[in-house]
Sequence to fold (590 residues):
Amino acid sequence: MAVPARPSFAGHVRSVAASGGLVVQPRMGFGDPQRMLHGLLATKHAAAHTAGTITLDSYTRVGDFAAVLEAIDNDVELNGYPIASIDPFVTLSMLDTVGHPRFPVQVRHGSALPTAVFDAMVGLGLDATEGGPASYCLPYSRVPLSRAVQEWAACCERFAELSEFGFEPHLESFGGCMLGQLCPPSLLVAITVLEGLFFRQHGVRSVSLSLTQQTHAGQDLEALAALHALAAEKLSDIDWHVVLYAYMGVYPRSPRGALSLLADATSLAVRGGAARLIVKTVAESYRIPTIAENVEALEFAAVRARQTTVGEPPEDTGVLAEARTFVDAVLELHSDVGKAIVRAFASGYLDVPYCLHADNTGRSRSYLDNTGRLRWSSVGAMPIRADGTAGPAAVSSSDLLTALSFIQRRYDEAASVRAGIGEPGKIESGSCR
Amino acid sequence: MAEYTAVEVSTSPLAPRRPKVLLSSVSSDSHTWNLVFLQLLLEETGHDVVNIGACVPDDLLVAECAEHRPDVVVISTVNGHGAADGKRLITRIRTDPALRGLTVVIGGKLGVAGAADHSCAAELVDAGFDAVFQDNADVGDFLGFIESSVPSLEVGV
Ligand code: B12
Fold:
């Protein structure tokens, strides 16, 4: 007998999208269960179409559970919720109090070897998470890519089994972010689509494809269009939506600058047809944000989303063609998507600029052109062409900082001009433990 | 476990030896832009840099120190666990007789509370670090400290 379907994360996103809304979600995670509960409740009651987030701490991400316990014993504040180390009954009662699953909650973690995290989630009846064999390995670990692929495959299959019990397991690829900055968007689009195909191959029938806002609104809009086009082509037989990440690189320091960047991310999400937006707060460039700062960001984005109207379609500068070239070249390497991804990184077909992981070739380089678009100065062995010699031949430490802080500078300067003051505003700091 | 590609710049045998810096993050921290930046900065100021990357377990770091025999170890971390990971790591290094006298500094965003964490610096020095550089520390102070900690060598700028 079929089990009746229960409310799901994916279903929530579908129904908000059907009514023309945008789901907004924080990157929230606290070590203390009581604070985590308050954070989820505040997210739920924010004036916005929200979904809850449980972001896990870095010890759990790298599988160092002894360090989690030591931190708890010594009152060290963690940078996220240690889901695998907290008594499951505490977490279950937290989820119960926030009304999960009617209130959707997603686990965001960054584990290259995620078995313990999936064990915990499945045990708790959580139906939505984030990850991917490449996107949670290269930026997050020194684990060999082939090992991450194997473990992610097994975890996807296990997670997919939840559908036999009335759940709709949903997996979001982090491929549209990777190192968060200075990666031309065609490569991000390709990696997230490839991870979507990997999830599907391992039984997951509901996925989200991601993209991060970067340095040029037109290029970002074009990238979102490319992502929609490729996803529609390659994943037409499963449920999917697109999620946009508010800027993932070095963030403006001034509150005005930070909010204005979030406003642009929100407009981009609406114009680019994303169903969901992960916000950033005014504390981003300093420290872990408070609950209040997260709520401020969610409500600010909700207002902005309602004010945004869909505009002109973006100019085509070749993002879709390049992304398609990557995806097709990789899929030709092997009929198994995971093996194809491993070969693609080994041969340098996929090569993330500035990524230090041993399985990333590290020969590609990017630069910001004079319009603020991200371009390739060097493509290594990737199956695409470099955009010319306009990029600096050798990048110095100050060139790198200048490129990394391009968005921070632009938004902080604009904010101080608007405020008529020379100094960006100050951010209160929390307490030290 | 896979190793990061350790990047070393070769020098001519006639040139004065460039001070060798071993650059690393702590076990739980995966951020790497800080490491990429510091590697470039140190190379530009005349150092040989062995960058062993992010998420470095304590054992691996100790083994790399024993192998490369650096003049200075620079730990960079921003994920908010730096104070806890740093304390555990430096205790380990200071109790290893093979690494006696090694100069070790740490810097970055060391706790999860922003500026309020700056008081944690004293604890890290007490635990055994030779210097602690907060998120907003002056790069010149850092380079000056590195230079002064290897006085027997000429640091070409
Ligand atoms: C890019 C980024 C990422 C990328 C990193 C990709 C990669 N592999 O590097 C991604 C998206 C993957 C990521 C993931 C995470 N991130 Co992150 N990330 C950032 C972000 C946006 C920019 C960092 C950056 O690139 N800076 C550029 C480099 C060149 O500078 P820097 O790192 O700031 O270091 C400067 C100084 O601190 C100093 N410095 C650093 N080290 C040292 C050492 C010495 C000796 C000296 C002298 C100086 C020094 O020099 C640098 C130049 O001025 C920052 C927020 C921000 N700054 O806007 C958050 C931030 C650092 N991340 C944060 C966190 C918590 C995480 C996660 C744990 C996820 C989470 N819970 O939110 C995971 C990491 C998982 C893990 N295992 O550690 C927090 C840390 C909070 C804290 N310390 O209180 C921040 C501040 C965001 C926030 N407000 O929550 N992140």
